[in-house]
Design a protein that fits this description.
Layout: E1 8-11, E2 16-21, E3 24-31, E4 35-39, E5 45-48, H1 51-68
Antiparallel strand pairs: 1-2, 2-3, 3-4, 4-5
Length: 71
């Protein structure tokens, strides 16, 4: 399912999820001791106790980044 910012989340394995925009991977979440978020451009990193929290951090950053981009 694609969100309002054009991001689609896909579970690639039991412990890995990827966020995609226009078929390009823009972030990865891996489950170890925590859900570890890393954006493809290294601008966003985080450790979370749930996948939803990692997902929310990335989506909030993306929304912020879009809001500060010049038209």
């Amino acid at each position: 399912m694609t969100d309002q910012h054009g991001i689609t989340w896909q579970q690639d394995s039991e412990t890995t999820w990827t966020a995609r925009a226009d078929d390009a991977v823009v972030a990865t979440v891996t489950l170890g001791r925590q859900y570890e978020l890393l954006s493809a451009d290294d601008a966003v990193r985080g450790s979370h106790s749930s996948f939803g929290s990692a997902q929310a951090q990335f989506e909030a950053h993306r929304q912020w980044a879009e809001s500060v981009q010049p038209d």
